[in-house]
Amino acid sequence: MKSVCLTVALTLASPAALACGCNWIIKGGAGNVDPNSYSHLSNIIPGVGNFQVSADDDTQLAISGTYLMNDYLGVEILAATPFKHSISVANGVLAGAPVGTTKHLPPTVTLNWFPFGSRAGFSPYLGAGINYTNTFSEKISDALVGLGYDDLSLDNSWGIAAVVGVDFNINDDWLINASAMAADIGVTAEVTDSTGMATPIVVDYDLNPWVYRLGVGYRF
To answer: What percent of the chain has pLDDT over 90?
Structure first.
């Protein structure tokens, strides 16, 4: 999936794409994913009861390509380098106990509306679209290994996304961008024991993060 995202970004920036006479904006900068902490167990663990988990935030390189169909509507494809999150217990008798780590890629496609036009000096926009979150490289914590577990797995997620942002057009070519996106991301995390001796722990986790971006853009 990482290679797919990078391929999309490179394709958007390729001479063939830029030579078609289309209006493109390529943006790059910092992207911060700040997950929500809401979750619930699908099964109750004896002696522990119900609890929630949370994940910390992470900042990575975010890159996007926007095709402007006209001066007011554009389709944006967002990609990034992999985000990594540490997952831990958020409440109860195990509060603060580490669960493990995971990485994910959240490619997102949105249709953006620029009410003042995309070339206005101050150009806010609103957008909505679809997010796909691919999780990988899960690692279980040593604390759970000590309890007899040996595997942590998270599934992938499809969901809707909404974005609000603004472009500050410095000149005809360059701009500064800031945006905030809310993404509907829900995954199921399973902590299991390959021997079948320990009771599996299944947690439904609605990450539903805010994704904040700050960067620069270039118009072709």
So the answer is: 62
The Cα–Cα gap between 131 and 80 comes to: 13
Hey, which residues does 34 pair with through a beta bridge? 210
Residue 95 corresponds to which tokens in the numbers above? 């509060």
pTM of this prediction? 0.83
Handedness of CA 211, 212, 216, 220 (dihedral sign): positive
What was the pLDDT predicted at 10?
A: 42
Please tell me the distance from the alpha carbon of residue 118 to that of residue 103, in angstroms, as a whole number: 34
- The stretches of the chain forming alpha helices (DSSP H) are 2-13, 15-18, 142-146
Nearest to 132 by CA among 165, 97, 103, 156: 156
When pLDDT is cut at 50, 70 and 90, the band that residue 41 belongs to is low
- Candidates 130, 14, 12; CA nearest to 65 is 12
Residue 137's region, left for phi above 0, alpha for psi from -120 to 50, else beta, is left
CB 75 within 8 A of CB 111: yes
Q: How far apart are CA 66 and CA 180, in angstroms?
A: 16
